[in-house]
Write a structure and sequence with these properties.
mainly beta; five-stranded mixed β-sheet; RecJ_OB; RecJ OB domain-containing protein
């Protein structure tokens, strides 16, 4: 379930996601070119996500990030 969602850059979707069963911590995610999904996410529509796990480095800070490849609405 998304904790926050917004559009960044040129049409990219930035999210903070947690598992629907709330097991484990929330993780940052980015979907390049997936900004069109934002309205459904903001409406609270449940979804499954296809992603890869990567190491993000931004301004000298490193963190684990999910790279969203696609979303499937439940």
């Amino acid at each position: 379930m998304p904790h926050s969602a917004r559009v960044v850059g040129q049409g990219h979707l930035k999210l903070r996601l947690a598992s629907a069963d709330a097991v484990g911590p929330a993780v940052d995610a980015i979907g390049f070119g997936l900004a069109d999904y934002l309205p459904e996410i903001e409406q609270g529509k449940p979804f499954s996500a296809c992603y890869t796990v990567e190491l993000n480095e931004y301004r000298g800070q490193r963190s684990v990030q999910l790279r969203l490849l696609d979303v499937r609405w439940e």
